[in-house]
C-alpha cells in the first residue's frame, strides 16, 4: 500500500488554516523567517515548498538569501535581528550550512525547526515520520498487530536520522540505528519490521535486503542526472514486497512541511 503523504498533510493544513484565521482576527499573522546561505538546489526547492505551504494556510515567509561567503559574525547578526523582531514567530537557517557557520543562536521560542537543545518544538521530520506511522499503527508506541515491531533507522545525521530515532525511542519503540560503520548492515535491515531510511543515495534499501511485508519510509531524497527526484528505494522494485511504503515525491516531504507549519502556528499562538 502506498502511503499518501499529501493526504495526511492536507488534513493538517486544513486545520492550521482555521487556526491562522482565528489568529488573524486577533491581529497576529504567523511569520517565518528563512535564512538561506548559498544556492544549494535542494535547499531552494525545499524553501519553495515552504513558501507555497505558508501561503496556503495564510501565514507569511520572509526569505533572507545570503552568499556562501558570509561570515559567522554576519550570520549571527541577521539571526539576532530576527530574534528581536516581534513580528517574526519562527526562524530557520536552512541546512546544509558551510562548516564555519553556526545556527545555534536562534531564540528557543522561535526555534520551529526544533534542532536546538531544549527546544519547545519537535523536529518536523521526526514529527512527520511519527504521524505517518500513526496512520498505520495508531498513537503511542509504534505497534504492529499488537506487538512492538523492530524498527531500523538508516542514517544518524543531525537533521533526520538522529532526531527520528530519538523521537521513536522516546515513545518506547524498539529502534536500531544502522549507519556507515555498522557491521553487516543488510542483516539488520532484513530483520526489521519497519525501515526508515534517511540517507539520500540510490539503492540503500533494496528488494534483497528487506523482508516481506516490511513497512518502508524514505526520508532521504536525491536527484538523478535528469533532475528526477528519488528516495532511498525504487518504488517499482519494492511495491509488491512491502506492506506499506512512502513514495518519493509525495511521501514524507509534504508531512514534514505541514509539521513545520504546525510549529510555526504554535509559536504565533503563544502571543495570545
3D architecture notes:
By secondary structure, the chain is an alpha/beta fold. It has 2 domains: 26-102, Rossmann fold (3-Layer(aba) Sandwich), CATH 3.40.50; 124-253, 3-Layer(aba) Sandwich (Rossmann fold), CATH 3.40.50. The chain is built from 8 helices and 10 strands. α1 runs parallel beside α8 (252-269).
Distance between the terminal alpha carbons, to the nearest Å?
A: 42 Å
Task: Give me the number of helical elements.
Answer: 8
Tell me, what is the CATH class of the largest domain?
Answer: Alpha Beta
- The count of DSSP E runs of length 2 or more, i.e. the number of strands, is 10
Give, in spatial order, the strands making up the sheet with the most strands.
Answer: 5-4-6-7-10
Structural class: alpha/beta
User: Number of folding domains?
Assistant: 2
Amino acid at each position: 500500500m502506498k502511503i499518501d503523504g499529501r493526504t495526511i498533510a492536507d488534513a493538517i493544513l486544513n486545520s492550521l488554516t482555521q487556526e491562522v484565521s482565528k489568529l488573524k482576527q486577533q491581529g497576529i499573522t504567523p511569520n517565518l523567517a528563512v535564512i538561506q546561505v548559498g544556492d544549494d538546489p535542494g535547499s531552494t526547492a525545499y524553501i519553495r515548498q515552504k513558501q507555497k505551504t505558508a501561503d496556503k494556510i495564510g501565514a507569511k515567509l520572509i526569505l533572507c538569501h545570503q552568499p556562501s561567503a558570509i561570515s559567522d559574525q554576519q550570520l549571527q547578526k541577521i539571526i539576532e535581528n530576527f530574534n528581536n523582531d516581534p513580528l517574526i514567530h519562527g526562524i530557520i537557517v536552512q541546512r546544509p550550512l558551510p562548516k564555519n557557520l553556526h545556527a545555534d543562536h536562534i531564540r528557543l521560542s522561535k526555534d520551529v525547526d526544533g534542532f536546538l537543545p531544549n527546544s519547545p518544538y519537535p523536529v518536523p521530520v521526526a514529527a512527520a515520520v511519527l504521524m505517518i506511522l500513526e496512520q498505520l499503527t495508531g498513537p503511542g508506541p509504534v505497534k504492529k498487530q499488537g506487538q512492538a515491531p523492530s524498527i531500523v533507522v538508516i542514517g544518524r545525521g543531525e537533521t533526520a536520522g538522529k532526531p527520528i530515532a530519538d523521537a521513536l525511542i522516546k515513545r518506547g519503540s524498539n529502534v536500531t540505528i544502522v549507519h556507515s560503520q555498522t557491521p553487516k548492515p543488510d542483516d539488520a535491515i532484513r530483520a526489521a519490521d519497519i525501515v526508515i531510511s534517511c540517507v539520500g543515495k540510490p539503492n540503500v534499501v533494496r528488494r534483497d535486503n528487506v523482508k516481506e511485508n516490511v513497512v518502508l519510509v524514505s526520508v532521504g531524497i536525491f536527484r538523478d542526472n535528469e533532475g528526477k527526484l528519488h528516495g532511498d528505494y525504487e518504488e517499482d522494485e519494492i511495491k509488491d514486497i512491502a506492506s506499506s511504503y512512502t513514495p518519493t515525491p509525495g511521501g514524507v516531504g509534504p508531512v514534514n512541511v505541514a509539521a513545520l507549519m504546525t510549529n510555526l502556528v504554535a509559536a504565533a499562538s503563544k502571543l495570545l
